[in-house]
Amino acid sequence: MKIYIDGQFYSEQDAKISVFDHGLLYGDGVFEGIRIYNGRIFKLEEHIVRLYESARSICLTIPMSREELEQATLQTVAENELRDGYIRLVITRGAGSLGLNPYQCPKAGVIIIASTITLYPKDRYEKGLNLITCATRRPTPAALSPQVKSLNYLNNVMAKIEAIQAGCEEGIMLNEQGYVAECTGDNIFLVKGGKVVTPPISAGGLDGITRQTAIELLAEMGISCQEVMLTRHDVFTADECFLTGTAAEVIPAVQLDRRIIGDGAPGPITKALVERFHEYVKNVGAPVPYQS
Ligand code: PXG
User: Fold this and answer.
1) pLDDT, tens digit, for every residue of 68-79?
2) Whose CA is nearest to atom 4 of ligand 1?
3) Each residue of 36-87: pLDDT tens digit?
4) Whose Cα sits closest to atom 2 in ligand 1?
5) Are 26 and 16 contacting, i.e. CB atoms less than 8 angstroms apart?
6) Model pTM?
7) Is the CB of 171 under 6 A from ligand 1?
8) What domains appear along the chain, each with residue ranges and CATH number?
9) Is 160 a catalytic site residue?
């Protein structure tokens, strides 16, 4: 595997950064996870835009233009000859001194890893995930905007630990008011009476790129999707539930806190969307400039 760091490619063994990097010391930095399907990078521009917005929000200057970063990302995938896979783009604050002050880090670091990811076991895509409600809440936007995909994912990691300790693969995270925000790394949708609902971004979830894709594909399929505040009650009484995310793609969920959602099997709208999603992603992304 060849890993891009600050304009050069390194082997996995040699891909190293400073222990004084504030990305490590303070989780000071931002990232994106992006899929490669069929030799194309899915929604590359959208991910790059979100990355620059995350960076801007935390006063982090990415030391290259959007176009340059797009090119570097395409080149990293080409170097690794990946036709299907997962890209992790990481911008760290860079090496500085001990002490929080980010202005003592002269240059941000740019890391691009092109690899693969398997988030959930394969059979879960057919049978559906079991969810719990995590006691760990999403932080209030007054602490850090949920739109910043920062290198500090401890809040989500804590929630993920709860889910795994409960024997589940994923968990719902509520906001401070107790409304459903999202899952630890995915957005959530419910189906009831043939209509689809998802929490608005203002509920505290990330403005997911897969979420937006799902909304658009549902519209094409003639299925309306409304953004409404949701509670656990809505999940318990839904006909279907599914999650969306770059790593997760579109995946059904069939239980919450051991209560069966709908009839306990992935429902028809979820199944139709999963199929439509996999068809759609094949041909829309930015083509990778492979050498051979
Ligand atoms: N919510 C959160 C908190 C996320 O981190 C999503 C929703 C889905 O957004 P996209 O744009 O990807 O549809 C994410 C992004 C993982 C992992 O290993 C998950 C994400 C990113 C990186 C790693 O679970 N999801």
Assistant:
1) 999 999 999 999
2) 185
3) 999 999 999 999 999 999 999 999 999 999 999 999 999 999 999 999 999 9
4) 185
5) no
6) 0.96
7) no
8) 2-115 (3.30.470.10), 124-280 (3.20.10.10)
9) no
Structure tokens at 33: 């996870």
Amino acid at 141: P
- From the list 226, 225, 231, 181, the residue with the least C-alpha distance to 207 is 181
- The label of the residue with tokens 């024997």 reads 167
Decide if pLDDT at 292 tops 80.
no
Q: Give distance in angstroms: CA of 249 to centre of ligand 1.
A: 10
